[in-house]
Design brief:
Chain A: Pfam families: Sigma70_r2, Sigma70_r4_2. The complex is a heterodimer of chains A (about 200) and B (about 80). Chain A has about 200 residues and is mainly α. Chain A is built from nine helices and no strands. Chain A folds into two domains: about 80 residues, Rna Polymerase Sigma Factor, Chain: A (Orthogonal Bundle), CATH 1.10.1740; about 100 residues, Arc Repressor Mutant, subunit A, CATH 1.10.10. In chain A, helix 1 packs across helix 2, helix 2 crosses helix 7 and helix 3 crosses helix 4. The longest helix of chain A has 25 residues. Chain B is built from four helices and no strands. Classes of the chains: A mainly alpha (about 200), B mainly alpha (about 80).
């Protein structure tokens, strides 16, 4: 555990409300992504609520062998799996088209070279791109179009910085599945950025 | 020699450090010669940066939830 974790844990054990606020603000997004992957959008919020209660109940017994984040995400995954109980939903690798497509086979000639190569983007820093309100909304749409597994894997990797192995363990997916989900999701987001840079529109 | 299509197929694994040494060298050799793929990889990195920097969605009732959790913790301390 990091020094920050130790300090936060001490304050949590003392029941300090501000410490719980920090905990929720920092980790709720990652917990929701885990719940979303396992139980889907309809039950994700409820699972996160239940997971928080389990966290408080078990705070005393937290062994500190893992990071606080890993512990919270493991509790969330377990809570979600208990909720699910049976039949893992068959949504693992479904691949709906993103609103702006992907980078598919049609972009390449028969010899495998680019037929439609990527154009230069007007903006190539994330900050400059995100300063466009319309693009932010467009990205929200693309993220909403991803399957639950794709969206969760993408968020856990890119926003929460989890290692691929951690994602495999939490979501009980093989490494190759995680790699495929992540790649397909990234290409769809790429296609949205490319479309916006070319047309100026979502 | 990798084709551009294969390079794109390997791009996420390249960015995530999931390629073997031989595969990684193959990607690097291709990138050294192909400006389209260099641009593609650069823009994939920008895509990652955009995802990392997207503003977080607000957590509804953050304070209410924090208060409830703190209360529960304090109750269990007294039990």
């Amino acid at each position: 555990m990091s020094g920050n974790d130790v300090e936060l844990l001490t304050r949590l054990l003392a029941g300090e409300q501000q410490a719980f606020r920090e905990l929720v603000a920092t980790y709720q997004g990652a917990m929701r992504a885990v719940a979303y992957a396992i139980v889907g959008s309809r039950n994700a919020d409820e699972v996160v609520q239940d997971a928080w209660l389990a966290v408080v109940r078990n705070l005393e017994g937290f062994q500190q062998r893992s990071s606080l984040k890993t512990w919270l995400l493991t509790i969330t995954a377990n809570t979600a799996k208990t909720r699910l109980k049976h039949n893992r939903r068959e949504v693992l690798l479904d691949d709906l088209p993103g609103p702006h497509g992907s980078v598919g086979g049609e972009r390449f000639a028969a010899d495998g070279h680019w037929q439609t190569p990527p154009n230069a983007w007007h903006e190539d820093s994330p900050e400059a791109l995100l300063s466009e309100e319309e693009l932010r909304q467009c990205l929200e749409k693309t993220l909403a179009s991803l399957s639950e597994m794709q969206a969760s894997v993408l968020l856990l990797r890119e926003r929460q910085g989890l290692e691929l192995e951690e994602i495999c363990n939490l979501l009980e997916l093989s490494l190759s599945n995680v790699r495929v989900l992540l790649h397909r999701a990234r290409l769809k987001v790429f296609a949205t950025l490319e479309h916006f840079e070319e047309t100026g529109q979502c | 020699m990798l084709s551009c299509k294969e390079l794109v197929a390997h791009s996420s694994d390249y960015l995530d450090g999931q390629l073997s040494l031989r595969e990684r060298l193959g990607v690097r050799a291709h990138l050294a010669m192909c400006r389209h793929c260099r641009r593609f990889i650069r823009q994939m990195k920008v895509t990652q940066g955009v995802l990392r920097k997207l503003p977080d969605a607000a957590i509804p009732e953050l304070d209410v939830l924090a208060e409830r959790l703190a209360e529960q913790r304090n109750q269990s301390r007294q039990d």
